[in-house]
Amino acid sequence: MKITNITRSPEPCTEAGWIAFQYELERVVCRDFILALRPLGSFIFLESLSKPFFKIQNHHYMIKGLLNDSSIRVAVHREHLNEQEPIKQLIESL
Fold this sequence. Notes:
By secondary structure, this protein is an alpha+beta fold. 17% of the residues lie in helices and 39% in strands. It contains two helices and six strands; from the N terminus they run ββαββββα. It is globular, with a radius of gyration of 13 Å.
């Protein structure tokens, strides 16, 4: 899935050492896309909610979003910004 735009999130999380980014995607997030991200870390997918939500957490980053939304949020610890690259590569390969 192509990432069409990446913007820095306006939410203040830098005090805790995290920088969040909003990844705009070419298509909406589907179930298969969410499941394909599973290897990136600890995985939660609450599919039975009225707005199904997923969250993937690793030591230096967190990815979260909603099923059928056209963007996801990626937060990365400021000392590990390079960990964003494998995330982007995986997303672009799907």
